[in-house]
Automatic annotation (TrEMBL):
Pfam families for the chain: TsaE
Keyword Magnesium: yes
Family: Belongs to the TsaE family.
Keywords on record: ATP-binding, Cytoplasm, Magnesium, Metal-binding, Nucleotide-binding, Transferase, tRNA processing
BP-aspect Gene Ontology terms: tRNA threonylcarbamoyladenosine modification
Region (Disordered): 1-29
GO cellular component entries: cytoplasm
The UniProt record lists the keyword ATP-binding: yes
Identification of the protein by name: tRNA threonylcarbamoyladenosine biosynthesis protein TsaE
GO molecular-function terms, A-Z: ATP binding; metal ion binding; transferase activity
Biased composition (Low complexity): 7-19
Domain of life: Bacteria
Subcellular location: Cytoplasm
């Protein structure tokens, strides 16, 4: 289990060594159902203490993938965009970890602005998923998964009222998953490549 990490001021004189990364896995995804299946498959690789950063343009499919994560983890309540509450906790229905789903879109000050959310307290026993988290919450943990969703060039995003993709929005995306830190060093993420074919 990774532990929350905050650099200590005044330690060291040079840049911190780059954390090890697992080989990136790229998955073409053509429908929202398949995006959810990627999330469900990814959930099987997660455990308490894991931090997942979701990056992508508005309507790219971040919340759809997070919904699949919630289904795969077996948590209570439908995972929807937490934009207006910033963070939402989904307790487990069984023995698994709770899911903490965060939308950092409106938080521009980085980790300092998120301290009131107590994410560093939640992380050891939860799976924490942060939309728009890149460049804002990396200091929470040396070990994390970066999930980047990119649309094919020239396609525009459409999103429903909950921030997720509309059912008719079937533009192809590429989901790139990279593990950072010792937790993911040498991890086999290849199971994710078949997930997009299993979805509806």
């Amino acid at each position: 289990m990774s532990t929350p990490h905050r650099p200590t001021a005044g330690t060291g004189t040079g840049a911190a060594p780059k954390a090890p990364e697992s080989p990136a896995v790229r998955i073409p995804v053509g429908t929202p159902d398949r995006m959810r299946e990627v999330g469900r498959t990814l959930a099987r690789l997660l455990r308490p203490g894991d931090l997942v950063l979701l990056t992508g343009a508005l309507g790219a499919g971040k919340t759809t993938l997070a919904r699949g994560l919630g289904e795969g983890l077996g948590v209570r309540g439908a995972v929807t965009s937490p934009t207006f509450v910033i963070a939402r906790v989904h307790p487990p229905l069984g023995d698994g970890p709770p899911l903490v789903h965060v939308d950092a879109y409106r938080l521009g000050g980085g980790l300092e602005e998120m301290e009131d959310l107590d994410l560093d307290v939640s992380l050891p026993e939860s799976v924490v998923v942060v939309e728009w988290g890149e460049g804002r919450v990396e200091e929470l943990s040396e070990d994390r998964l970066h999930v980047v969703i990119e649309r094919a060039a020239g396609t525009a995003g459409t999103a429903g009222e909950d921030g997720a993709d509309r059912p008719e929005d079937h533009d192809v995306r590429t989901v790139t998953v990279t593990g950072v830190g010792g937790r993911w060093a040498g991890a086999d993420l290849s199971a994710l490549t078949g997930a997009a074919r299993r979805g509806g």
